[in-house]
Amino acid sequence: MWSVAEDVWVMGHLLLLSLQDIRDRELSFAVLLEFLGTGLICAFVTGTEVCLWPGMTLLLLAAASGEKIGYGDGWLILGMGMWCSAEEIVSVLLMGCVLCTGAGILRKEKELPFVPFLTAGYIAGRYLL
């Protein structure tokens, strides 16, 4: 039962942040902080291990690339580390990158909002694979 509630919580945040990313090309830091904070509290209460390295790596890449990768994407992955295992996060990132690259090639665009592709990767990994 708790797993379903967690999954709904993560999916709801991913969908909300996807819409923000498509519309505004930026993510609400308040929503990201709330996602991260509730995940940290949940992990503490349940004794679940958190996974920080994918999010921290993405935040460092955002800084090193002059924000070609947005800080919001790094904060989102950091928040997902409170809810998902390292394997799940890496899988979501890889699927998101493949989908985003494919869409960029098909649409002949170099800059696309990334969170919708992360959301698609999460859905694919959770429900289709």
TrEMBL record:
Q: Which InterPro entries match?
A: Prepilin_IV_endopep_pep
Q: Does the keyword Transmembrane apply?
A: yes
Name under which the protein is recorded: Prepilin type IV endopeptidase peptidase domain-containing protein
Q: Name one GO molecular function term.
A: aspartic-type endopeptidase activity
A single Gene Ontology CC annotation of this entry is: membrane
The Prepilin type IV endopeptidase peptidase domain is annotated at 11-104
Transmembrane helix listed as a keyword: yes
Q: Which UniProt keywords apply?
A: Membrane, Transmembrane, Transmembrane helix
Residue ranges crossing the lipid bilayer per the database entry: 27-46, 89-106
